[in-house]
């Protein structure tokens, strides 16, 4: 879906305004992996931005509005190709990206669309977006977001705020998605975030999962362990049997051993199971690394 440049700029500013209402001002919660944060921009990100500009480091609390908008535009809005997303969907993906990283937000949208979740928006994803109902897509993205948030170890601290933020973003996204081209980017806000202190910090806490999934914790990984174990046992038994057959009167016949081993069905099955288990284990590990964001 392609939008006119002026419309895209208006939508960027409208979506940013909604996100900033939830991000609030300065926060440096000890449980927040983002650390010192001003209007949703963390100190590390601001340092990197100023370094690219050839500028010296300074406290993120001093960030200028122009700098803030440039970071949001290039590091979040453009990263999720929000210009090409439908109204309402752009907000759902953009705000998710600000809170948890653009690749994770894109993957959530792709899962809601039923396409490969690789974190990159290509022609297949864009075609699926064009064919999707915007309201259903917003709801699907937000369902993915809530599910992700509930598994984060700091949910006890930020969960209430995150869920309230999700409610507000979803309702605003649905309001925009449901009004088509007549949407007015004004002051309407479905759930007004009138917070202070700890409540505001709970809404803007960065939702990163710092505990990467382990292969052992997945059903594929556990199946690979069982398969590899069974294959190893079967292979070892076959080797032992073949060696016993090839050893006679203090002499070991290597040719007989190899022939016996090659014709041993347990050996063939064991090797296949062992290979399959190892491929499954390392393959699942590779996917986990690809999905980690």
UniProtKB/TrEMBL annotation:
Gene3D superfamilies in the cross-refs? Chitosanase, subunit A, domain 1
The protein's name is Uncharacterized protein
Domain Peptidoglycan binding, by residue range, is 104-165
Q: Start and end of every TtsA-like Glycoside hydrolase family domain?
A: 17-101
Query: Which stretches are annotated as coiled coil?
Result: none
Per UniProt, the keywords (alphabetical) are: Membrane, Transmembrane, Transmembrane helix
The highest taxon in the source lineage is Bacteria
Instruction: Supply the source organism for this entry.
Output: Hyphomicrobium denitrificans (strain ATCC 51888 / DSM 1869 / NCIMB 11706 / TK 0415)
Q: Matching InterPro entries, A to Z?
A: Lysozyme-like_dom_sf, Peptidoglycan-bd_3, TtsA-like_GH18_dom
Membrane-crossing residues?
254-282
Q: Name one Pfam family in it.
A: PG_binding_3
